[in-house]
Design brief:
The complex is a heterodimer of chains A (158) and B (292). Chain A has two domains: 77 residues, Beta-grasp domain (Ubiquitin-like (UB roll), Roll), CATH 3.10.20.30; 69 residues, DNA polymerase, domain 1, CATH 1.10.150. Chain A is 33% helix and 17% strand. The termini of chain A are far apart. Chain B is of the alpha+beta class and 292 residues long. Chain B has three domains: 47 residues, Uridine Diphospho-n-acetylenolpyruvylglucosamine Reductase, domain 2, CATH 3.30.43; 116 residues, 2-Layer Sandwich (Uridine Diphospho-n-acetylenolpyruvylglucosamine Reductase, domain 3); 103 residues, 2-Layer Sandwich (Enolase-like, domain 1), CATH 3.30.390. Chain B has twelve helices and 14 strands. Chain B has a five-stranded antiparallel beta sheet with strand order 4-5-10-6-7. Chain B is globular. The model of chain B has no long low-confidence stretch (mean pLDDT 96). The chains are: A alpha+beta (158), B alpha+beta (292).
Chain lengths: 158, 292
């Protein structure tokens, strides 16, 4: 089995780490870098709890090998805010009932971040479509949709 | 997942040489969205993975009026959905790519990877077959071009040779005034794999259909051209009743698969309905306002 030194920027910080070829990006983030905000959920590409951004675009880190992130920039939920200074999406999720148990939340935040970066004022239908790769078993989704709408308004002063 | 070696060729020629020398022990890896699942379930156990992510040349999308559309095999579904060339010249393909799977998979999965994996429960092959697409396969002895219906052989099986790599997907320029429609049927909104789909390309003079190509996919092992329904429509003034009859004929001429996600009779019924609606829509008819 081959091993590879990957050069990857995670939340703005450069890392050079040796990984076996079969290390999943989700496991690399959680077990090698100890960034446990990214959740392992179904591990079959269905639930989206492991969603992260690669070069600003949302992907599922359980469907990526760590070696695929070589030379690229990864953003996890830890990179959204800075300490207690939360990202508007995070405060909106708190204020609008966007979470209950919270397990799916990091994935939803990253998918919502990708959506709002391309479409600053999405319609409700566009929000639901943009979050269609993520599952939540608690909220029934309405709180999440409201949170994203609220964050969009905050971020773009509507 | 079993252990494997990971190779990252820098050029297409290098990738072909690796594939030729390693043979069936090696597996091509494009976006990886489908293959990684197969590997983790140990359905696919390559000793070596040849990752094509470094072949930037295979990501381009271009259009010219003589040759039509040329899509590099490593263009992602997101790239197709956002491509001005697709949105202008083959909007049906852009529309399909914007809705398949989910945003995360579209940001990673590639058109070429999708075609080579040949999972029947997917969207691009159906749309491409209706558009008369072909694929360019590059091997050690040069390139060959196959019609997409010759490339897709069976359930998870293609005509890709043991030392070949899918390089490009080509779509001929659309006939003036032609219109394409793509419809997918999901059992639930949360499911991302279609249980049946249909792509339609029609040419028309007013309400008269002058040419029609209907293709059914996901309901069958590989997409199939519904030639009888197409012949029925050709030369007809299309009304809701004609659209419904085309749907009935199409439903009878396919050989549907049965699996856990739907039995054959269900799939046959569904494709008849979505075909009726797609034909009606192509001719500006309001099927929603009419009796079923």
């Amino acid at each position: 089995m081959s091993k590879h030194v990957i050069n990857v920027t995670v939340n703005g910080e450069a890392h050079a780490v040796e990984v076996p070829a079969k290390r999943l990006l989700a496991d690399f983030l959680r077990d090698d870098l100890l960034l446990t905000g990214t959740k392992r959920g179904c591990e079959t590409g269905t639930c989206g709890a492991c969603s992260v951004l690669i070069d600003g675009e949302v992907v599922k880190s359980c469907l990526n090998l760590a070696v695929q992130a070589d030379g690229r920039s990864v953003t996890t939920v830890e990179g959204l805010g800075q300490g207690t200074n939360l990202h508007p999406l995070q405060t909106s999720f708190m204020e609008q009932g966007g979470l209950q148990c919270g397990y799916c939340t990091p994935g939803f935040l990253m998918a919502a971040h990708d959506l709002l970066s391309r479409n600053p004022s999405p319609s409700e239908e566009e929000i639901r479509e943009g979050l269609s790769g993520n599952l939540c078993r608690c909220t029934g989704y309405q709180g999440i949709v409201d949170s994203v709408k609220n964050a969009a308004e905050k971020m773009h002063g509507r | 997942m079993r252990d494997f070696d990971f190779l990252k060729p820098a050029t297409l020629a290098e990738a072909i040489a690796m594939r030729s020398s390693l043979g069936e022990e090696a597996c091509l890896f494009a976006g990886g969205t489908a293959l990684l699942l197969g590997m983790r379930q140990r359905l696919v156990n390559p000793k070596t993975v040849i990752a094509l992510g470094g072949l930037a040349d295979l990501r381009a999308i271009a259009f010219d009026s003589q040759h039509g559309l040329r899509v590099g095999a490593l263009a992602r579904h997101t790239d197709l959905a956002r491509s001005p060339e697709l949105r202008t010249h083959t909007p049906m393909l852009a529309h399909m790519a914007a809705r398949m799977a989910n945003p995360q998979v579209r940001n990673q999965g590639t058109l070429g990877g999708n075609l080579c994996y040949a999972d029947p429960a997917t969207d691009p092959p159906t749309a491409l077959m209706a558009l008369r697409a072909s694929v360019v396969l590059a091997g050690p002895d040069g390139e060959r071009t196959l019609a997409i219906e010759d490339f897709l052989v069976d359930y998870y099986a293609t005509a890709l040779g043991a030392s070949e790599i899918l390089k490009e997907i080509r779509v001929p320029p659309p006939a003036p005034g032609s219109r394409g429609i793509y419809v997918r049927h999901l059992r639930t909104a949360a499911e991302h794999r279609p249980v049946a789909n249909l792509a339609l390309v029609v040419e028309r003079k007013g309400a008269v259909c002058t040419r029609a190509r209907l293709v059914v996919g996901a309901a069958t092992a590989v997409p199939c051209i519904a030639a009888k329904a197409g012949e029925y429509l050709t030369g007809k003034t299309v009304t809701l009743e004609v659209a419904a009859e085309a749907g009935r004929r199409l439903a009878q001429e396919i050989t549907p698969i049965s699996d856990l996600r739907g039995d054959g009779a269900f799939r046959r019924a569904i494709v008849g309905v979505i075909a009726k609606r797609a034909v009606a829509e192509a001719f500006g008819l309001d099927w929603k306002g009419a009796q079923a």
